[in-house]
Specification:
This protein folds into 4 domains: about 230 residues, Acetylglutamate kinase-like (Carbamate kinase), CATH 3.40.1160; about 150 residues, VC0802-like (2-Layer Sandwich), CATH 3.30.2130.10; about 160 residues, Rossmann fold (3-Layer(aba) Sandwich); about 170 residues, Dihydrodipicolinate Reductase, domain 2 (2-Layer Sandwich), CATH 3.30.360. It has 31 helices and 30 strands. The structure holds adenosine-5'-diphosphate (ADP), aspartic acid and magnesium ion (MG). Aspartic acid binds next to loops.
């Protein structure tokens, strides 16, 4: 005998009913099969809501919704069943709908739902399922025995959350003397009490029905068929990379389901474990996957972690103010009353040193518990021996479940690394004495992100992931995409997974949370009709709950730079080749840094000065190690480095500029280089690193172009005007030569923070003397580096080196990503 239970997710439409039928057909070849069915997906929710609506609004809208779902089923079934069987089914279903209507009308006229009626109403879905499956099996000529759980399973206790008396139920089922060849069919979720009235087994209770039936029929296996491949290390709907647990012991499964793994109802495992019946969790839509097997495995000697779960609708009562609260008598008084009222606290935390007592209960027991606490503590409250009871609503309990896991290396460190990632506020922590679980109370709104972070730090610590959101696909952005494509596989071998989730320019965007294929992004981008909107992108990032999202700005847009604070507030790192954020007003500059610091995020902009040269990181390291800047001098522009090199060879300014433009060294309009503003921006960035609170306007710039130069010329006219300056520059070169010097365009920061960009005459001993052909050089004269400065030199422009710089910033965001 094997019991198969199919949940609502496996019964959401007629097609799925037939898939279930095929599974039964396959299994019946080897042994007798019992089938326990839940209600078709969502029906129980609608039924529960229908009671509330009938009570308050006195209408039956939910009933109409249910009717329309069932009618859709009937419409499909008509094509698949013989007319006779179909007509019988239709009649039975109509009878049930009328019963339901009558019951809801009673609720509506009484303004309340009598206790006996609630379980009857909310279990109609299971009855529909049994009627439908019975017809399908009958139409294929199977012999079916339908067990009525109200007559056979003896429920005790709460009529919405009853427990089943196994011995009595087993005798009742034996009395049925079911023929060995028959398929047994039974509705889940319900039983009958002493008075033979229908009682329910609690939401999700069909799993429990299946476990009970397995025990009563002495089944070899109890199989729970659902919409996931088995029990995972976390809810796979929340954690994309949760891992399937192939084996679990009964106690592990019990702990997981008690603490929130909804794949199994908490009461399911206990009877199976008592009678040693293995439980298998399988996916109705992926039958080849073996699923999870739960049974008694020999004691695991290796400490292990099995999963992260959450219970979401929790209220925490916090009682404080006197050591007396922790005394034996007072706590005993509170808890005996709580258990008398059948309230089961989920977590109790008691601090004997300061007398604090925290009790976590399920939200639906809030009022009852609060009453008890107020009554039992009335004297202490009246005499202000204790503070008023704090009721903390909207909380959740996250639990980490495993085996002797306190012995696992770094376990607590990893849990806290996960918790600190979204700076979650911990309300309470409790370690289970059996050492099999740790529970943490947090705000409900933090649950999803916290589960993802803790799961990542516990299970995928060596699996490093970066989700990239790229804006700007000009020269640098495009080259970066090529570099990413080339490196993606190689990095995967190092366990670094770069997932490009969106590509945008000022007009369009493409987004794929699973990762855009870099081999055909161009086509996809061309086809895209979605326009780019930063707030939409941030909303998507928020909703998809990425692990390590990084926004890359390869634009030169001031508008985007002004959004960096907003981006950081969405817990997204920023890597920018765009200089605007660092050269805008000081206020923005400071806000970005404060926000990044507050949320422990990275804002990296190594390519802002010297493109791929490691300028910013080295400079920051130097300053962090206590060194002091005495003076900085540098050639910070690739185009001006090239032009001044050519001037030195006797080439005119205008010709050198044309050559620089042709070789791609200059900005689209070379006046942007010659005006010196680009160098000034880079200088400002370096000066701000030292701590000087400067604005761009504080930098003294000696432009190559005279003050009265017309900046509105097209390129042709610009070069005609530029030609007029050739003589002047020949003269200046000549003057310098007389002193054995050459000219260089230099950015200077003095010790007092004064910044200048100017044409300097420099001699052979100067470290900037040999810099030409587009190279950059940065000379840091510091307390440690003197009289000879620390010099960084190399190509400071070009798409390849800049994109490589952005790439290395991107990888640096991983140092944040736990444990590295
Ligand atoms: P059914 O209708 O089959 O009873 P449920 O919705 O009750 O289905 O249970 C299956 C769901 O349980 C899955 O879709 C999944 O989202 C959720 N779930 C929660 N925690 C876990 C976990 N640790 N492993 C697998 N599934 C889980
Ligand atoms: N249909 C019931 C519910 O939704 C029982 C179950 O699915 O197990 O809670
Ligand atoms: Mg379920």
């Amino acid at each position: 005998m094997r019991v198969l239970k199919f949940g609502g997710t496996s019964l959401s439409n007629v097609k799925k009913f037939f898939i279930v039928k095929n599974i039964i057909k396959e299994k019946i070849r080897n042994e007798q099969i019992s089938v326990v069915l839940s209600a078709p997906e969502k029906i129980t929710n609608y039924l529960v809501e229908s009671i509330q609506i009938a009570k308050i609004k006195k209408n039956l809208v939910q009933l109409h919704l249910i009717e329309s779902i069932i009618n859709k089923f009937l419409f499909e079934l008509k094509k698949k069943l013989s007319p006779k069987i179909f007509e019988e089914l239709k009649k039975e279903i109509e009878k049930e709908i009328i019963k339901l209507k009558t019951a809801l009308n009673t609720v509506s006229s009484l303004n309340q739902c009598p206790g006996y009626l609630t379980p009857i109403i909310i279990s109609r879905g299971e009855i529909f399922s049994i009627l439908i499956m019975n017809s399908i099996l009958k139409s294929e000529n199977y012999k079916v025995t339908v067990i009525d759980p109200v007559k056979t399973l003896i429920g005790i206790g709460d009529n919405l959350n009853a427990t089943i008396d196994i011995d009595k139920s087993k005798n009742k089922i034996k009395e049925l003397k079911i023929p060995k060849k028959n398929i047994i069919l039974m509705a889940g979720f319900i039983a009958g009490n002493k008075e033979k009235r229908l009682v329910a087994l609690g939401r999700n209770g069909s799993d429990y029905s299946a476990a009970i039936l397995s025990v009563c029929l002495e089944a070899k296996y109890c199989e729970i068929w659902t919409d996931v491949d088995g029990v995972f290390t976390a809810d796979p709907k929340i954690v994309q990379d949760a891992k399937l647990l192939k084996f679990l012991t009964y106690s592990e499964a019990m702990e997981l389901s008690n603490l929130g793994a909804t794949v199994l109802h908490p009461k399911t495992i206990s009877p199976l474990s008592k009678f040693n019946i293995p439980c298998i969790i399988k996916n109705t839509l992926n039958q080849n996957e073996e699923g999870t097997i739960i049974k008694n495995f020999s004691e695991e000697s290796i400490p292990s972690i099995k999963g992260v779960t959450s219970l979401n609708n929790i209220t925490m009562f916090s009682i404080s103010g006197s050591e007396k609260i922790a005394t034996y008598n007072l706590t005993r008084k509170i808890f005996s009353k709580i258990s008398q009222k059948k309230i089961s606290p989920i977590l109790i935390l008691q601090n004997y040193s300061n007398g604090n007592l925290d009790i976590c209960i399920s939200d639906n027991e809030l009022e009852k518990t609060f009453e008890i606490l107020k009554n039992e503590l009335s004297i202490e409250l009246k005499n202000t021996l204790i503070n008023p009871i704090k009721v903390i609503k909207n909380t959740a309990i996250i639990s980490i479940i495993g085996n002797k896991f306190q012995l696992k290396k770094n376990i607590y460190l990893n849990i806290f690394l996960g918790l600190q990632k979204n700076k979650v506020n911990i309300l309470a922590i409790s370690k289970n004495l059996s050492q099999n679980s740790i529970s943490i109370v947090i705000k409900k709104s933090d649950v999803i992100e916290t589960i993802q972070n803790i799961h990542h730090s516990l299970f995928n610590k060596n699996y490093k992931i970066i989700e990239v959101f790229l804006v700007g696909i000009g020269g640098v952005g495009n080259t970066l995409l090529n570099q990413l494509k080339k490196q993606q596989k190689i990095l995967q071998h190092k366990n670094i997974h770069i997932k490009l989730c969106s590509i945008s320019n000022s007009k369009k965007t493409i987004f794929n949370e699973k990762g855009i294929n870099l081999n055909n992004w161009v086509k996809e981008f061309q086809k895209s009709k979605s326009s780019f909107n930063l707030n939409n992108l941030l909303e998507k990032i928020k909703n998809n709950k990425f692990i390590n999202p990084v926004f890359i700005d390869c634009t030169s847009s001031e508008e985007i730079a002004k959004e960096y604070v907003n981006i950081l507030l969405h817990h997204v790192h920023i890597v920018a080749s765009n200089k605007k954020a660092n050269t805008c007003c000081n206020q923005l500059y400071q806000n970005i840094r404060l926000t990044a610091k507050k949320y422990d995020l990275k804002f990296l902009y190594e390519t802002n000065v010297g493109a791929g040269l490691p300028v910013i990181e080295n400079f920051q390291n130097l300053l962090n190690s206590g060194d002091k800047l005495i003076q900085f001098r540098g050639i910070l522009s690739g185009s001006l480095s090239f032009i001044f090199g050519k001037l030195e060879q006797g080439i005119s300014l205008s010709k050198a500029t044309i050559m620089a433009k042709e070789l791609g060294f200059t900005e689209p309009h070379p006046q942007d280089d010659l005006s010196g503003i680009d160098v000034a921006r880079k200088l400002l960035i370096l000066a701000r690193e030292v701590g000087h609170n400067l604005e761009l306007s504080d930098i003294e710039i000696e432009s190559l172009l005279p003050k009265n130069f017309n900046f509105n010329l097209n390129l042709n006219d610009f070069f005609i005007e530029l030609k007029k300056l050739d003589i002047l520059f020949f003269k200046r070169i000549f003057e310098a030569k007389k002193e054995n010097k050459i000219l260089r365009f230099v950015g200077i920061i003095e010790k007092n923070g004064k910044c200048k960009v100017k044409i300097q005459k420099i001699g052979k001993s100067d470290p900037l003397y040999s810099i030409k052909n587009g190279e950059n050089a940065l000379a840091f004269y510091t307390q440690y580096y003197q009289p000879n400065p620390l010099v960084l030199k190399g190509y400071g422009a070009g798409n390849n080196v800049t994109a490589a710089g952005v790439f290395s910033d991107l990888l640096r965001t991983l140092s944040y990503n736990l444990g590295t």
